[in-house]
Request: fold
Amino acid sequence: MSVKKKSKAWEYFDLDQDGTQASCRLCPVKLAYKNSTGSMRNHLQSKHLDVNLDGTENSQTPKQARITAFTSPTTRRRCDPGRSEKIHRLITEMTAIDMLPLSFVEGKGFNKLLNFLEPEYTVAGRKLITTKLEVAHANMTAVIKAKMAKAEYVAITSDGWTATTTESYMTITGHCIVEGEMVSRVLQTCAMEERHTAANLAEHLRTSTSKWGLEGKVIACVHDNAANMVLANETILDWKSVPCFAHTLQLAVHNGLKANAMTRLTGACSRLMGHFHHSTVATNALKKKQAQLFPDGENHHKLIQSCKTRWNSVCDMLARLHEQRWAVTAVLSDRTVTKLSEARTLEMTDDNWQTIETMLPVLESLKTATTTLCSEEYISLSMVFPITMRLLDRYLVISADDSTVVCDFKKTVATSLRKRMEPDNTERAGRAALLASALDPRHKHLRFLPLDVQAAVKQQLVIHYDGLAATVHVGEDGGACEEASGMSLEPGPSRKRKKTTLSAFFGEDYAEGEPSDDELERYWADPPLPLTEDPLMWWSGKERSFPKVYMLAMRFLCVPATSVPAERVFSAAGLIVSRLRSRLLPKHVDMLISLNKNAWSE
Reply:
C-alpha cells in the first residue's frame, strides 16, 4: 500500500507492511491507521511533549526527540518487580564475570549511571548482591555435582598461590569424562592458614572432594613436584601422585637457560627490550621504521620482554626480536634517536642474531610441547611420554650445524629431561602417564619406548585389567556394567581439534598394530587411531567391543598432564583478592572464583 507521507508526524512513525498500523518510534505503541495522521499527532502531543510538530526553529530532529523522550519523566518506563529482579541478576553476573569488588554497587559513578538509565530502579546493595551470588553459587554447585556424579572416575589438580594480601590459598580443580567429553571444573579455593604439611594438605584435599561427593572416585592428583604433595597423595590419601609435566619441562628448560652463553644472550636481548619499553622516543622511532619496512601493515608488532618465571616468554622475546631485527637495527643506527654510547651497549652482534635464529626452532618445539599438554578440553596425560621421547629423539638431538650455544642448550635440557622422566626405567612402568598412553588408541603401540619398557607397561596394564575383572562384568549387550556406573554409552558430539600442530610435531610415520583372543589382546591388535582423530570419540564407539579396557581408559584418560588448570585461576584470583577486596571472607573468594571460572566464564 503506497502512502504519501507529507505530515511531519511520519517522522516519528513507521507503517507496517499491510498499511493498517503505525508504530511509534519513541515508544512501543501501535496505532490503527485509516488514511489519516490525526491519531498519530494526538499521540505525540499527549505522550511525547518535547516533540514539536509545528516546524518552528525549535523543532527537534527525530533522533533528538527520541533521546529526550527516553529520559523525559512523562515517558519514563516503569521498573516493575520483574524488571528489577532481572537487573539484580545482571549486576550479580557482572560482579563475577568482570571480577568486581562487591563494594562497586555502592560506588557513586555506578549509581549515577543506573539512575540515568533506569530512574525507578532501586540499586541493589552489597548485602543483596552477596546473597544473589551465594544463591547462584549454590545452583552452580548442584549442576556440577550432578554432572560429575555421572563419571566413574575423577582426577584433580591442585596448586598453591599467595594473594597480594599475603594470604595463602590452594585451588582444586576436578576433571572427568562424561558422555564422551572431558569435563573440567574449579571445585574449591580454600585458605591455607596452617603450615603446608602433608597432613594438612591431605585434609584440605579430602574435605574438598568429600564436599563435592567424590569419595571413592578420585584416582589421581596432578601437582607440582613438591615433596609434601607427593606424600599427601601417595601415603595419606592413597591416590596416584602425578607430577605436573609443565613444571618438569620448565625445570629442564631453566637448566638449559642457565648456561653462561645463554644467560649472556638472553640478558642482551632483555636489555634491548627494556630500552624500547622505557624510551618513548625509541618506541616511536621503531613504529616509523616498521611503517617503512612493512608498508602493507604486517609485522607492526610491539617488542616482548621476557619474564623470569615463564620460560615460554624467552621464546616469545627471541621470536619477536628476530622478526623485528632490521627495524630494531635501523633505530639503533639512527644517531638522532639513539646515542652512540647507548647503541654500543645495545647492538647485537651477527653471532647473536645467528644464535637466535638457530635457537628458535628448538624453543618453539618445547613451547609446542607445553601448550599441547595444557589443554582442559582434550585428553593430555597420554601424550606426556610420546612428546617427551619426540623431544629427546628429534628436537633436542645435536646436529652438525648447531653452534656451541645451541649444542650446550640441547645437551643440558635433554640430560635434565631424561633424568626427570626416566623413560628407560622398567621399574616405573606403572606410572599413570605410561598407562594412559597404552590406553590412548593413537599411542597404544608404544613404539616411542624401548622394547623392554613397552613390555613392562603392557604387563602393568594386564595387572590393572585383572584387578578390574572382579568389579566389572559384561552385560548382555556387550557393554561394561559396574554397580556405581552412571556413564552414558552414547557418543558425545563431535568437536573440532587442534590436529595440524600435533601431526606436524610427531610426523606422519606413527602407527601399526598386533593380534589374539582375549579383550586386551584384541585391543592391541586393533589398528592405531590417526593422530588427527579424537580418542574419546573412538572409545565411545568401542565400549561394547572392549568393555573392561574401556573402563580402564576412562580411569586413566581423565587425568590431565599438568596442573595448569589450577594455575589459570591465579590471574582471576589475583583480581579478586586485591586491596579493594582485602576484607573478603575466604568463602567469598572461593565463591567468586568458582562462579567466574565455571558459571559465567564464556
About this structure: The chain has 25 helices and ten strands. The beta strands are 13-15, 21-24, 30-32, 154-162, 168-178, 181-191, 218-223, 240-243, 473-474, 480-481.
